[in-house]
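A note from the maintainers: we've had questions about how concatenated examples are separated. There is no special marker in the raw files; a new sequence line simply starts the next protein. For clarity in this README we add a label.
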Amino acid sequence: ARAKLRHQSAAVQVPIGLEEEFEGLVDLVELKALKFEGGSGQEVVTSDVPSNMQDFVMDKRRELIEVVSEVDDQLAEAFLNDEPITANELKAAIRRATVARKFIPVYMGSAFKNKGVQPLLNGVLDYLPCPLEVENIALDQNKSEEKVSLSGTPAGPLVALAFKLEEGRFGQLTYLRIYEGVIRKGDFIQNVNTGKKIKVPRLVRMHSNEMEDIQEAHAGQIVAVFGVDCSSGDTFTDGSVKYTMTSMHVAEPVMSLAVNPISKDSGGQFSKALNRFQREDPTFRVGLDPESGQTIISGMGELHLDIYVERIRREYKVDAKVGKPRVNFRESITQRAEFDYLHKKQSGGQGQYGRVCGYIEPLPSDAEGKFEFDNMIIGQAIPSNFIPAIEKGFKEACNSGSLIGHPVENIRITLTDGASHQVDSSELAFKLAAIYAFRQCYTAAKPVILEPVMKVELKFPTEFQGTVTGDINKRKGIIVGNDQEGDDTVVVCHVGGSTNLHEPQPGQHF
């Protein structure tokens, strides 16, 4: 933690034995050995430090005192004068340094049989600040998110943050941390993020998974309410102020996955799960890719998304197939090609007749749009009321090129001539004529595939520089910048989307 995270930290405990030989802990502050007995480690047995660990324990205690002394003047004075430091003095120094956010105490433990839980909870009481010792900042939405310091007392207006949502037996359970004021059962509270007023139907204090009904709760407490429709991170007030505890701006997701249910029958449960997770977690996003039709989930990392996929399976009994989002390639043409197509169909009654002539060509690189349609017909070879249908037909044809079925861009279509029939010509006939004309001449225009190119910034420990740059080069990335930030290297590169493409290699970039 000190070397990598640059934290001013030190252990306040050392383990007795490691891995399968782990027996208990030695408290470096009190100099006592702690062992955890019973089926769930619920019985804490205190004893003297084992004789074979005396020297090691004293060295670690001295290291703890040294690290805390660097950020606490009172302890530093006693340490430099070689005065014996009592457990109470050390505990008080650790608390002062932790509350001032200058020191981080490190605890040991094992999840197996719950070893080390009680000392950790005692550490929360001993070293973490009570609500009045912390300055909580709210953002005033009436004044462009101007910072406001909250008093943290019951006397002020109600300000509470919904920090966790849970689906319970009685509907959505919303956990609230009250920063200021009082909340009472039956009160009306206002969701600052949505502007909705809500009545508090039931107020409970949580003890693990057990609930205790209460009538009111004060600043500094954590309570849960039922029947409140909100999202995680929403702020509630009594309506007299418009404060939010967190900024309205949420960090953009950094990773995406394509996900869809294996069974078509489970689509309703699948959608329900995704909607609920979006309400619970503002950094979890769900979207539909309009080109590929894939459902895309986005979040803050691979593990973040894996947990939600597992929760869909466990909580909603929906097996989901996960994969990489399809890369949205584009197609384009490299040379001019002529078209002359007659669409003629007779099947009793009114038929279909439409002829279009002209050429397609690539747009110049400085063109503003990605599709242009020019009507260069002189005279009335095609009545003017059919021209919009022809343009619509060409636009529709450009939605799917014949190389890999992706949209065609950077193309100009010029209509130079055509023919119509007094009876059989219609908008549909000319639209179909345009679609088939495009397909007829597209191959002659020598189409190519365009791949998306992303600017990527990578930050990693310097010792992995060779491995990372080799991997970028293997993926056809182009490194455009290299910088040092402390022990880390920052590489800026351009990476294309063709890594996963099992199609013809792209001819150019956009």
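[label: protein 2]
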Amino acid sequence: METSSRELQAAEYLEKHQIKELVSYLTSALLFFRPALKTLGLCTEDEDLQDDGHKITLDKFKEEVNKRMKEIWSAF
């Protein structure tokens, strides 16, 4: 009985503080966003990416890619 109570408390804590969503977001950021920007030549190794505290949506990602591409191509 005590084990299921602790498991229920743990599950409620995870849900309340959105821990699963946070872990999912951090995993995506580590595995996708930074390498994608580097591959596209839009982020250098030493560049510090600023986080505005909000989730990075596909639209925000596309906007940033387009903005940086325009900056790159404006030199030509």
